[in-house]
Amino acid sequence: MTRSQMIRSADARAGEAARDRLASVPARADADVLAKVAIIAKQLRRNEDALVADLAAMMAREIDQLDSDPKLVEMLEASVHGNVSTIIHVLANDIPVDHLQPTTAAVEYALRLAQRDVPSNSLVRAYHLGQNSVMRRCYQMIEDLHLDADDAMAVTRHVSDVIFGYIDWITLYVFEAYEDERRRWFGAEGNVLSSTVHQVLDAPEPNVRAFETETGYRLGQRHLAVILWTADDDPQDLRLLDRVARDFAARMLSEGPPVITAVDRSTVWAWIPLGERSGGVESSDIAARVDLPPRIRMAMGLPASGVHGFRRSHQQARSAYAMATLPGASSQIVGFGDRGVAVVSLLAQDLESTRAWVCEVLGGLADDTPNAAMLRHTLSVFLSTKESHLHTAEQLNLHRNTVKYRIGKALAETPPDRDRLDLAVALLVCEFLGTAVLRPPA
Any residues with CB less than 8 A from the CB of 141 and at least 6 apart, and which? Predict the structure, then answer.
C-alpha cells in the first residue's frame, strides 16, 4: 500500500469513527431534554438567514483568502447555509444522523478551495470558527429558557455533543475531499505552470529567468491580462476557455502565444504578449472584434510593461472580474478602463461604508424603488451631459420640460448644497452595485 493510500485509509477510518460518535448522540438524551433542544432548534431556524449571513461574513473577514473572489464568497455562504440547516435539522428532529451525507455546497466549496490553492487550514478553521459562534448563540438561548441547573447542563451537553460530533465528522469528510482534489488538480498537465505564475505574481523578488524558461513567455514587454470564466460554472469548459483565450490573443495580434493557467474548473487567467506596442484597450472595441461564446465572460486589465505590468494588469483584471461577478451584472466583457469600473471596484471592497456614504450623499434617491431609480438615471445622464437639459432630453428621448421636472425632484431628494462630483460618483456606484448599496423599501 502506498503512503497516499494509507493516508486515505486512515482518513476513512477516522471519518467512520466520527460518524459513529455522532450517530450515538440522540440515543443518550431523554424526551424532556430533546423537547427543550427542539425549542433551541426552532429559534435557530427562525433566525437562520441572519445566522448564515453573520457566520459567512465573519469567516470571510477573519480568515485570509476566503474573501478574495466574489464567487468564493457566494460558495462560502452556500456551504455555511447547508451545514447550518443540517445541524438545525438534527437538533430539531432527533434524527438518526448516521445516514447523513454532506451537502453538495460544502463539498463543492472544499473542492474550489483546493483548486485555488487556498490552504486547507483555512477550510478547517472556518468550520471551527462557525462551531464556536453557533455554540455561543445556543448557550444564550439555553440561558433564556431559565432552566434549573441540572436541566440546563443536560441540554447544553446534548447540544454540544451534536454540534461537536457533526463538525468532527464534516471536517474530516471535506478535508479528505480537499486533499484528493488537490492531488488531482495539481497533478494535471494544465496546471504544471500554476506555481510558476503565482511565484511571479506574489514573490517580492520573482525569478524572471525561471518563469521565462518554464513558459517561453518574455516578461520584458507589454502585457494585457484577462480572466475568462463560464457564467454557469460548468466544470467541463477548461478546454473551451483555453481555446477562447488563444483565439483572443490571435485577434489582438499578439507577439506570441499567451500564458494561460487554470484557477479552478471554470476559470482561467491569461496574459497576452503585446511586444512594445503602445495604446490602450477598450472593452467596446474588444466586443466588436471578438465573438465570445454565449456562456463565456471576460474581464480585462490595461496594457502595462515589465514584471510590474504583468502583475498590475492582472490586479486590474481581477478588479474588473469582481465587478462582473456581482449579482445583476450582465456585461459579457468588462474592462478595468471602462467608465466607473476602477472607482467602483475600490468602493465595492467595503460595502458597508460605501452603502452608508451613498445614503448620506443621495438622501431619498438611495431608496430601492422604481421612482428613485428613474430619478437616479435621469440625474446621472444630466450630470454626464454637463448639466444640459437639452442633451439629457435628447439622450433619454424625453421632452425638455419633463427632464427639468425630474431633475428638480431628484435634487430635492438630496441634501442641500451637495457636491456635484459626490453626486456623480454615488450615482455611478448605484448603477454598478444596485441593491447592495441601496436602502431597502420600508
Answer: 39, 40, 43, 44
